[in-house]
Amino acid sequence: MRVSTERVPDSQVVLQIEIEPQQMERSLDRAYRRLVQRTEIAGFRKGKAPREMLERHVGRERLVHEALDMLIPEAYNKALDEQQIEAIDQPRLDIVQEEPLIFKATVPVQPTVRLGGYTKMRLGRPSVIVAPEDVDTAVEELRHRYALHEPIERPVKAGDLVRAEVRGEMDGREVFADDPTRIENTGIVVVSQDVEFLAPFVVDGSPLRVAVGCSQLGAARTVLDYRAWHHDVEVARARGTICPFDFATGRPRRLTDGERGAFESMKVESQQWKPIKVVDVSEAGDFIEVPISWSDVDRQGHVNNVSLAGYLQEARILATTSWSPGMRRAGNYLWVVVRQDIRYRRQVLPTQRSCRVHTALTRLGTSSMTLAGSIATEEGSALDAATVLVCVDPKTGASVPIDDQTRQALSAYRVTV
């Protein structure tokens, strides 16, 4: 592998990376072994078809694309290490030549800061006078901050630290009871989350009215239903399965009587949902590496679910727009998310520094498609999702058939799972 570097304006470095033919051939062989395991070819058991038959079935272009999905990130990361370049964001990749493979990576790096003549700056030092009463006040604040707290029997006064047992009642019936020590060590874990968008709406300052109810109440798992209206038009609905969790032991726990009473007071009828298959594609499709930011981590030290869903969206947009120009916002049509089902399998820890997010096309309909998404970890998939996109005419807002050019381009990336 040969690498050349060039610094360009706006704090960027352009890496030109040339891949040796032997390295490309090894990647093609790896791509064949991955594709053949999930491709059904008449006359052969899955995983047993020779490479020539696989290329004839899926096309040479699909095999090459699968190889590049593995080879380019590996070559790019190796080039960063060799050239000792610290990237601060994802690169822009451009294929310069296919045989031998040469690609460019435009990498954003930290800007070079040139300081002015700061050594000649002079500032007057303010005169500070510390009065004895200021010292007494500071000492008293330190005494309060580090003092040992002991329970006492007297009415509460200003400045006291109060530990309270919380109880809630509704219509004379207790619906919540808990003590603060247990609240600190327990919480609610979202196991699954399904969202369906029923009608478009414009953000015009009018409030979005949301109703929350409990449609299923189990010993440890509870299903909450959500319905949203805008100007009295139902625009979305959702459901989520939640599980009470004890973070101190790392295990699920049962609902308390108070929690059960609260959910029982929210009882609603369960809604009918069209089933969508959610599958693990952590070994299939296209993938990107999404860096984990410190703001993505919750107080329990895990990457929160909202951030994981954001990773899915980022990977989905990058994958689909690379498959076909017709998937981009500048195209003739809009692609609208109408349904997304997510299954959370395991926690993601920030120690892994980045998430490998996979996207695969599993269904291609007349005017819609279904994309599978997974976030891979060493222990297995942390999250699996299914997202339904609909092709929409931006002028009328109605669904329209996918044009032939876009359909042909997308068909090359469809996988069977």
Compile the SSE list and pairings.
Layout: E1 2-8, E2 12-18, H1 21-36, H2 51-58, H3 60-83, E3 92-97, E4 102-108, H4 132-146, E5 166-170, E6 173-178, H5 180-185, E7 186-197, E8 209-217, E9 222-230, E10 233-246, E11 251-252, H6 257-264, E12 286-291, H7 305-323, E13 334-344, E14 354-364, E15 368-377, E16 380-392, H8 404-411
Antiparallel strand pairs: 1-2, 2-4, 3-4, 5-6, 7-10, 7-13, 8-9, 9-10, 10-11, 12-14, 13-16, 14-15, 15-16
Task: Describe this structure as you would to a colleague.
- There is one protein chain.
- The protein has helices spanning 21-36, 51-58, 60-83, 132-146, 180-185, 257-264, 305-323, 404-411, and strands at 2-8, 12-18, 92-97, 102-108, 166-170, 173-178, 186-197, 209-217, 222-230, 233-246, 251-252, 286-291, 334-344, 354-364, 368-377, 380-392.
- 25% of the residues lie in helices and 32% in strands.
- The strands form 3 sheets. Strands 7, 8, 9, 10, 11, 12, 13, 14, 15 and 16 form a 10-stranded antiparallel beta sheet that branches. It has a 4-stranded antiparallel beta sheet with strand order 1-2-4-3, with helices on one face. A two-stranded antiparallel sheet has the order 5-6.
- By secondary structure, the chain is an alpha+beta fold.
- The chain folds into 3 domains: 2-108, Trigger factor ribosome-binding domain (Alpha-Beta Plaits, 2-Layer Sandwich); 166-264, Hotdog Thioesterase (Thiol Ester Dehydrase, Chain A, Roll), CATH 3.10.129; 286-411, Hotdog Thioesterase (Thiol Ester Dehydrase, Chain A), CATH 3.10.129.
- α1 packs across α3.
- It contains 8 helices and 16 strands.
